[in-house]
Automatic annotation (TrEMBL):
Protein name, per record: Uncharacterized protein
Domain of life where this protein originates: Bacteria
Length: 160
């Protein structure tokens, strides 16, 4: 699969969304009308620097994306930053506790990409008060949500 250059329109849409590390958690709509809630958009070079090899089964081609917006499942930027700053809980995974404003808590286990999380019925990521890195049960937990990657090349006129 050839990695294509991000269009100017896509770059402008992407610039409106918070970035986690070098990648941006997004919702995207594809040219076939399908909307995907959990997609990381990232510059190809940044992806290789952070993740190394590419799993092509997890890729969405940038040229198939017609719109980019905030994901309804992405942690607020300050909370994802807190988790990334804390680092891994163990080799290749992160454990954290989500605290909701109403007292509900969830224990979550993810890989090293932590942005997309499930929410209990009636709550959203906007209802999250805090996250506690390296806290929570590794026996009774929910997994982070499945996601895809979209890699793109920069048009070299501005940083992505």
């Amino acid at each position: 699969m050839e990695i294509k250059t991000i269009s100017e329109d896509q770059r402008k849409q992407l610039a409106k969304i918070h970035t986690s590390q070098d990648w941006t958690p997004c919702q995207v709509t594809l040219s076939n009308g399908v909307t995907l809630d959990n997609v990381y958009l990232v510059n190809y070079d940044d992806y290789l620097r952070s993740w190394g090899g590419i799993n092509y089964e997890m890729l969405i081609p940038i040229e198939e994306i017609t719109s980019i917006s905030e994901s309804p499942n992405a942690l607020p930027a300050s909370l994802s930053k807190k988790l990334y700053d804390a680092g891994e809980s163990g080799m290749g995974y992160c454990v954290f506790k989500i605290l909701y404003h109403n007292g509900v808590t969830l224990d979550i286990v993810t890989g090293n990409a932590v942005d997309f999380v499930p929410s209990p019925h009636g709550l959203t990521v906007q209802n999250i008060k805090d996250v506690l890195p390296h806290k929570g049960s590794t026996q009774a937990y929910l997994n982070g949500l499945d996601y895809k990657w979209c890699l793109f090349k920069s048009n070299n006129t501005q940083n992505e």
